[in-house]
Design a protein that fits this description.
Elements lengths: L1 H5 L21 H15 L1
């Protein structure tokens, strides 16, 4: 959650689960930022 917050990625819910909802306007760079935050948080 801290990794996402540091990248201005909003989190709803808690750290027990992850739900990602994208939209047609979601840019690939935004998804890459999420994946990077996810990897860093799981490491």
């Amino acid at each position: 959650m801290d990794q996402c917050a540091s990248r201005n990625i909003r989190i709803a819910g808690g750290p027990d689960h992850i739900r990602i909802s994208t939209h047609i306007f979601t840019q690939p760079a935004e998804l890459d930022a999420f994946y990077t935050a996810l990897e860093a948080g799981l490491a």
